[in-house]
Amino acid sequence: MPIDIVVDGMGSDKAPESEIRGAILACRHLDVRVHLVGPEDILRPALRQHLASHNLQNKHLPVFIVPASEWISMDDKAAQAVRAKRDSSMRVGLKMVREGRAAAFFTAGNTGAAMATAKMVLGMLAGVHRPALATVLPTTTGSPSLLLDVGANVDSDPDNLVQFAVMGSIYAQNVLKVRHPRVGLLSIGEEDSKGNTLTHDTLPLLRALPSINFIGNVEGRDLYNGHTDVSVCDGFVGNVALKTSEGLVKLFSVLLRDSLKSTITAQVGALFSRTAFNDFKKRLDYSEYGGAPLLGVRGPCIIGHGSSNEKAIMNGIRVAAEFAQAEVNASIEAALKPPATT
């Protein structure tokens, strides 16, 4: 049976084009129904145009328009926009999840606004003190690696990091299908003595936690070498690591492309290596991973990159559906449920 996913139709840099194309792709290739939220006078004509251009107007694709008179732009100040724009596409979409009319929510819009709106509309899971934004990274082994928090909280305490570890481990196991995910604490060295006050205080708490497969401190290089499946840090460190990674991916792609075109011999070689180059780009392409799950709120919420293209939107819808079907939130609440008092 198709699963209902609600999509912020006005979120990305190229909205609503990317969202509409991504929704159409998702409905053609996934077992989903997509509800695009935004101004009807903008979304409906654009949807009709795209369906007609692909001869899909009579295919009865399950793409629906949900009216919302406002949207939050990338330039809006998150806290102010969340309060002022009460009929925003984010708020209307998240209300659908809260009311059970959709299983999950996806947006490629303003990250700060999406997190604040999700906390306000959905609320927090029982036992969770703060949400965490996670991201999936590629590794040399081909298996995914999860990093959290990457920006939901600039400052965190040891108890927060312990909860992030539990939530990340559950997501890796239930959605990424990693058996017994190895959880590491991101630090500046593997030795227990390395790190700052936060990592020193968090380390013994994670070691004492029987519900996760904790392997100790890990370093930045371990995010990509397959040594760990889940890496935990505060949102300041995680966001710096994520943005640095995005910059390096772009640099590597440009340098490799330029090198292949630099000489006649290289150009001939490039013709034969095009498949390998495309595979290289695919393994590093953020659009393949769909978006970052916001863990800890009472409803599956995926936040995509602002520059998401139609493929990234489709994969964001896919990840949202996988998040909902895996019943991650029920597992998180069970794991973080406070002990019964006698």
From TrEMBL:
Recorded metabolic or biological pathway in which this protein acts: Lipid metabolism; phospholipid metabolism
Do you know which InterPro entries this protein is assigned to? FA_synthesis, Phospholipid_synth_PlsX-like
User: Its GO CC terms?
Assistant: cytoplasm
Q: Per the record's keyword annotation, is Manganese included, yes or no?
A: no
Q: Which domain of life is it from?
A: Bacteria
- Reaction equation(s) it catalyzes: a fatty acyl-[ACP] + phosphate = an acyl phosphate + holo-[ACP]
Q: Give the keywords, sorted.
A: Acyltransferase, Cytoplasm, Lipid biosynthesis, Lipid metabolism, Phospholipid biosynthesis, Phospholipid metabolism, Transferase
Q: Provide the GO MF annotations for this entry.
A: phosphate:acyl-[acyl carrier protein] acyltransferase activity
Subcellular location, principal: cytoplasm
* Entry keyword annotation includes Electron transport: no
EC number per UniProt: 2.3.1.274
Q: What does this protein do?
A: Catalyzes the reversible formation of acyl-phosphate (acyl-PO(4)) from acyl-[acyl-carrier-protein] (acyl-ACP). This enzyme utilizes acyl-ACP as fatty acyl donor, but not acyl-CoA.
What family is reported? Belongs to the PlsX family.
Subunit text: Homodimer. Probably interacts with PlsY.
Name used for this protein in its record: Phosphate acyltransferase
